[in-house]
Amino acid sequence: MPLQATSGAASYDAFGGGGKFVPSYIEEVFGTWLYTGTGASQTVTNGIDITGKGGLVWIKSRSGTTGHRLTDTIRGATKSLVSETTAGEATESTGLTAFGTTGFTIGADVDYNTSDAIYASWAFAKKTKFFDIQTWTGTGSNRTISHSLGSVPGCIMVKRTDTTGDWQVYHRSLANTEYLVLNSTAGKATGATRWNSTTATSSVFSLGTDATVNASAGTYVAYIFAHDAGGFGLTGTDNVVTCGTYVGTGSPLTITLGYEPQWVLIKTTGGNLEGWSILDNMRGMPVTGTTPYLFANSSVVENQTSNFNARVTATGFVVDASTSNEGLDYIYIAIRRGPMKVPTDATKVFAPVAYTGTSADNRLVDAGILTDMTMARIRTTTSTGGFYVADRLRANASLATTSTNSENTDLDSFMTPTVGYGSSFSAMNGFGVGNDTTRQLNQSSTSQLAYAFQRAPSFFDVVCYKGDSVSGRQVSHNLGVPPQLIIVKSRSTSTSYTGPVVGFGSDQSVLLNTAEAEGTQIGGYPQVLNVSSRKSYFVVLDSNGDETGSQDGVNYVTTTYVAYLFATCAGVSKVGSYTGTGTTLQVNCGFTGGARFVLIKRTDSTGAWHVWDTARGIVSGNDPYLLFNTTAAEVTNTDYIDTYSAGFEISSTAPAAINASGGSFIFLAIA
Asked: Rg (Cα) of the chain, in Å, rounded?
């Protein structure tokens, strides 16, 4: 019997009184959390309900040569395994001491919580079509083990727990007589007694007689990963984990998943060349530079060299030549980036932050949210570049909103807010700044402002791409809805044609670094984007509206770009336009508590990019504002906008650049 969608709802009800489908999202079952050790009991709050769902927590020190620690709810808290050795299960009373509904608690054990050491943790909750855990007692005879994955496993990691034994790894890309060893750099080996020469099914996997998987009276645990099984998203059809394979070419190689990953485990099967490399987007998988990695088969500290790099794309990842040795086979496990769920609370995805500079290196600016992009500048004096913009995909690189210059990679401006490797976004609740005096983001005793954005469906996304001048160029994104406002900036060139371009409708654009009106063309190069009706990509247009995509500003061959995409998200954000009245004007954004951020630009005539926020004050009196297109200090003695519960109100004293009678204006407001 078919399923009938309930109009306007995020659920599906079966005919005949069937049960309601409840959507699942990757952020409910997987999370990377970075933390600093305290040497005393602490709770890591990663938002994953390990107690209720059951699951695995995997922990590794990034700064110390301590081992990996794997603890799961089936064997119980304090019961650990190490992925880099053959050791059996150990009891660590001050290790991972308890699982919780929003994370886990750790004691003072040095492998989990050395004071001032930095750690990575990965939590995998049990969920059909994502991840399962099974335990058993061996029989010494060929047998099958039932599982609850609800799909055919893509990868299975088996470990004997009562005594020593190598980790045995089954992967769908290998023959059912082959296996890998997680605690070794060795390539694939043949051994029919591991999986009994039988391919796993959606209900069972098979074991032979080898002591590493099925010795009589031995005890075992298996960690089981799905492969492209769907089961997630509003309709239950989205994949969140892929167990794939690729063949190295000796050159950078693009792996297509159909989604952007947040965690990747890679191992070559063709030789004893490389370990089991673990990467994640919290520590950094930037589009340029080096990628921090840990080896599952080693206790060594986190490394970050040119020997291993993998970079995320909107639809997968790219491995550098060093991880694409010609002719070698590789396997991987990739997990989708979240969140997948559309936000309903703007405070979870956006924060305006006013802070005072200290000139300290490695300083964390606490935004209270996981930050994927930030715009920051000094407030009370002239800035060298206006707002400086950095994001997780570009790591520590920054661009200036007033400038046509290529991106700056000076690590003293946006920088790692902890010891060890990573980027200015390796903290879980903000971003890092340094003591750079050129960009002035942390000068001692100065007033500073930052806007922190988290990527989320229907609200905000970030895309990096390389221009190709190809006709009809489609740039993939993960906004999930058609973008209504896109800001594009060249990263690698510095010419008059590459100022920040803002597209806000089909064939409509303006420059962010000027006050000029809509449709301005610089040096004959049109600055136009098509942002209409594309949920998964946007297209670059030429001035005639035919999708040639050859202009210097947004798609010039070999030039690299970054794009920031915004959309209207009910109760969270509003991308809109209005016609000025010259009198008091209320702009209804559908909010209930007013706007915390307002950006306004006149498009039919000249007008600067004005921005206000509640960190500095949107009140009934004077409201400080800054301009995206100038380096001037903030203006504090004007009352151009006021509070209004449904959005924002433009006062009768506002100038023509904000409220000219009959003028055309675009805006971005965030609740």
From this structure: 26
